[in-house]
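Worked Example 4.2. Read the sequence first, then its structure tokens.
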Amino acid sequence: MIKKINRLKNSNCIIFDIDGVLIDVRKSYNSAIIKTVKYFLKKVIILNMKIDEEQLFSLIYSLRHTGGFNNDVDTSYAIILLLCYYYEFLKYKKIDLHGTLDQIIKKLDEKGINSLEEILFKLSKHNKLINDQLLRVKNILNYPAPVGQSIIATIFDEFFYGPKMFFKRYNILPKYYFRTPLIDHDKIIIKKSTIETLSKKVDGKIGIISGRSRLAAEYSLGKFLDYFNNDLCVFLEDEKREYAKPNTFAIEKILTKVNDVQQIMYVGDAIEDLIMTRKAQEIYKLKFLFCGIYGCSINPTKLIKNFKLRESEIIVKDVNQLPKILNKV
């Protein structure tokens, strides 16, 4: 799907997200969420509750649709709190898992875990046992404190980075996970020919705004990262937490280093990416086009629908389709 095709020729800078766009992370980041949630339910909080991976993936997708869960540790934390609320509520009334949790998730917004906590504690304020249990879990997780202080942030990154990279990143010895890092399951999607073609089209003005760290980007992209203009790359895991998408901090940082930009095309796979570009367009009075990628989504059909509802200018399955689209302009 392509809208306003006459506007495409004006883009002279292209910024990419990494996860779900340049790299397929379904067996890395998504698996880290699943493993983290299961670890806590079984070994930390100890809920006698069975939930399969399909149900967890559904919750991941629903949370990402809100635009406030670009951070996968946030997503893990949210799912644990939601499941604890559900488990405690079952003691008083029979309720449907997804029917109940979906109603809560639909009320969430780009404030992410702050909006989740506000809603859950409001719902449980008249039931002291449920409220106390949520507070207990929240205190155990100690989030959003950083790795080394928050057990959930620490365990998630141990799963994702593995023991060697975890120590390299944080200078902290791992405590919980000593096996193969899930980052090894990252799969590069973008082709060399795609990067070369797009870079030539915008005179080398191609960059990255990603929620991951530079270390993780370098590890998974390898030599592919050399194609991107370093001045136009922002790795938000290395920045302050409040700068995460959909905050426009990364775009502002890039705009201080790029000249003569007529229009920026941002290529992303999530609603918070789209929200970020819309905000930036209003703040910086610069034209943005959004290209939504859906090929690695947990639920491609719903993501396409959501991109359409928010009037994404381009919607394609694979980033490697972009050169052909731009060549037609």
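Now turn to a second chain, presented in exactly the same format:
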Amino acid sequence: MAFAPRPLYDWKLRTRSLALGHRTLVMGILNVTPDSFSDGGHFFTPENAPERALERAMTMIEDGANLIDLGGESTRPGATPVSPEEEQSRVLPVLSAILSERPSTIVSIDTFHASTAWLAIEAGAEIVNDVSGHQWDAAMSSACAELACGAVLMHTRGKPSEWRSLPPLEDSKVVPLVLTGLEASIAKAEAAGVDRSRIVIDPGFGFGKRLDENYPLLADLSALHRLHLPIIVGVSRKSFLTQVRQSGPVEGGHSPSAHPGIARLHATTAANVTAILSGAHILRVHDVRPAVEAAVVADGVLGSR
């Protein structure tokens, strides 16, 4: 089976650049929230902030993470919104602790609030990762332009409060919908002055796509290359991995009550490898070491051409 060569890019961040495409980079997820779908409350409580989050960040770096994605608001289905001020109270002390411990760390701030983006970038973050693709805060595009930071634009269909009631998507509609949405986000960002060399796109697995609606997107991920931008993929521990189209529910030999980090690890690895072979440049993951090891093999396959 032949795989197309992965496009090469030079991603410009706030103070440096990252070469993308020569090998897969891994972004470690650090959620300092009480209610994220997989790790809510694990790395942040008022009693342990920011020490436990810092410890987790250092572990991910030691395991091979190239970037840390720091988020302070859950976007799981039905999540309760928090104010920008509450979000900032969670992420800014952790960001400061990470950069004090290891100043060279590349930190991405996972937020759709422009005010949080401003404070985090000014505090040393290099990237703004907006799950709404600059659609939920009208000031986000201009903020990223003025901050001259890296910008991840994700495709999201609707808002978390709406996801359970969205009408189903036909297989043939999924990729065109994602392409159209990303094109709109890119146009909005560029119109505000965000340089194209600072943009990375994310198809938004699970964000308004129900269970098996994610499989057409994973199968045709390479279609996103027509946008001529680097691709980041976040399938880590997603619920669609427990429902394989032709096989039904998958428990992988684990108890149904097993933590998603255990029950979905192997499925996540399979999806990550699929994404790399389809041209993903960055993996956004909870479990860094398995992703790094899988990426080495997948990159070897791509490099053997």
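Notes for the reader: Residues 36-41, 252-258 have pLDDT under 50 and may be disordered. Residues 9-303 form a domain with the TIM Barrel fold (CATH 3.20.20.20).
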